[in-house]
Amino acid sequence: MSRTLSMFSATADLEGALTTLTATACGLPRDGGRLTVSRAAELLSSDAGHAGLLALAERLGVAAGELPSRPALARMFDDEMLSMRALKAHRGRNVYSAGKLALWNALWVPFRDQLLPREDAIALLTELVALRTVAGNPDLLRCADVLTTRLTALGFSIERLTREGHAPILVARRAARGLRGRVVLYGHYDAAETPATDWTTDPWILQERDGRFYGCAVGDNKAPLAVRLAAIASMDRTPELIWVLQGEEECGSPFAHAAFPELLRGLQATLFLEENGYHDLDGTQRLLARTLGEGGASLAPDVVLDRVNTALSRDASDWGLKSRVEVRGLNKDFFGGGCPFNRHLPPGSRYLAIGVNDPASGIHRPNESVPTWTFALHARQLTTVFREVDRAAGGSL
Fold first, then answer.
1. Are residues 102 and 147 in the same domain?
2. Which pLDDT score is estimated for 397?
């Protein structure tokens, strides 16, 4: 998805924007492929489609007065499709027109900032992907330094746990800023390398294509890391935050398995937030939520976590999505010992996994990617989580 309408890719730019906007306003499956201008016209110019557009504007805080009326929108689409047919009849290149620009400004520009990934998140993700954070590479330490600098700039104090021969564990702490409660976030900054010759793009250069970001480790775990850092940077109010970041998850987490039992046992948190989570291909959000029982058993969410899930489901609905709750943790059993975060959480902990991935992400495989449309929703849901943690910590049920 683009922020500007390019002279040389105007049709593709407009169709990409209309696809995202129409899917969000009309609740279309996210795996339905790109909409043509004519198909978007059928949907958005209908009574139901235009009503969906106005309802989306209300949900996302877009002034309805910025949007064209249904008859005006139908005329705009008619003008553009007439122009497209004329160009085709004369064998012209259908790349740019006044009609495309009018539709872009009338429909996409009002929603653009609400539905596109934050530019600072993309910039940080570009920087993180460029670092070859695989076992034994000096970029692991460089990435730890980049994250330390970023977190320090956001007011976190950093404890750096080190052990000879291992990537450092960062424990970042920040006092509450206007909200009650404590959230412990988990993540990792290392990557599982796949041969560059198996990629169709350079794995160490972030690239966007057809509504997806491609790059090594974007789905596991650099994209959600970048989205969360950028989102927190934009928030005036947060609960107390403790962010634990390790650099060896892709080689079995030996240092974390040694350090986490004592570290996590000493943390009393309103909520423990996993590094990432998933949407189905059609966009349905999977809310992985559980209360930790003895021996790591997954118990049903308590009343607080139920309320968090309800609020997150409302957010998903605002994006035109369905959602479902799954009582389990994020599956990471491909390494012996499993995930150190999941394994060492104390009994009674509230656990939640939400994120930006989908089944096409291809974790640990060539051409790993994430859908771009999930970024803005994830940033909003982080705010929702913090608000619900504040309510729970204040005793509001």
1. no
2. 47
Smallest CA-to-CA distance from 41 within 61, 13, 21, 65 is with 21
- Please tell me whether residues 325 and 183 are part of one structural domain: yes
Residues 326 and 377 in one domain: yes
Q: Which domain holds residue 236?
A: 119-393
Domain-embedded: residue 307: yes
Domain-located, residue 282: yes
In this structure, the chain runs to a length of 397
Burial pattern 99-126, b for ≥16 Cβ within 10 A else e, equals bbebbbeebbebbbebbbbbeebbebbb
Q: Is there a single domain that holds both residue 129 and residue 229? A: yes
Residue 261 and residue 203 in contact, taking contact as beta carbons nearer than 8 Å: no
Helix axes 47-60, 37-44, angle to 10 degrees: 80
Looking at the 3D structure of the chain, how many domains does it have? Answer: 2
Q: Is the pTM of this model over 0.70?
A: yes
Asked if 390 and 180 touch (Cβ cutoff 8 Å), the reply is yes
User: How many angstroms separate the CA atoms of 309 and 288, rounded?
Assistant: 9
In angstroms, the Cα distances linking 226 to 124, 161, 376 are 6, 22, 12
Q: Give residue-wise pLDDT tens across range 32-76.
A: 999 999 999 999 999 999 999 999 999 999 998 899 999 999 999
In a 3-state reduction of DSSP, which class is residue 54? helix
Q: Say whether both 170 and 104 belong to one domain.
A: no
- The pLDDT assigned to 3 comes to 87
- CB 183, CB 386: distance < 8 Å: yes
Tell me the HSE value of 244 on the side-chain side, using a 13 A CA sphere: 23
Q: Mean pLDDT throughout 140-159? A: 98
Q: How far is CA 52 from CA 33, 114, 237, 283, 319, in A?
A: 20, 16, 31, 18, 11
Q: Examine the fold and report which residue of 83, 114, 145 is the final residue of a domain before the chain moves on.
A: 114
Residue 311 · residue 233 · CB < 8 Å: no
Instruction: Please give the mean pLDDT across all residues of the chain.
Output: 94
Q: Based on the domain organization, do 65 and 170 belong to the same domain?
A: no
User: Distance between the two ends of the chain, CA-based, in angstroms?
Assistant: 40
Instruction: Let me know: does 251 contact 329? Beta carbons within 8 Å.
Output: no
Query: Residue 114 CA to chain centroid, in angstroms?
Result: 13
Clarify whether residues 67 and 209 are in a common domain.
Answer: no
Domain boundary among 60, 88, 114: 114
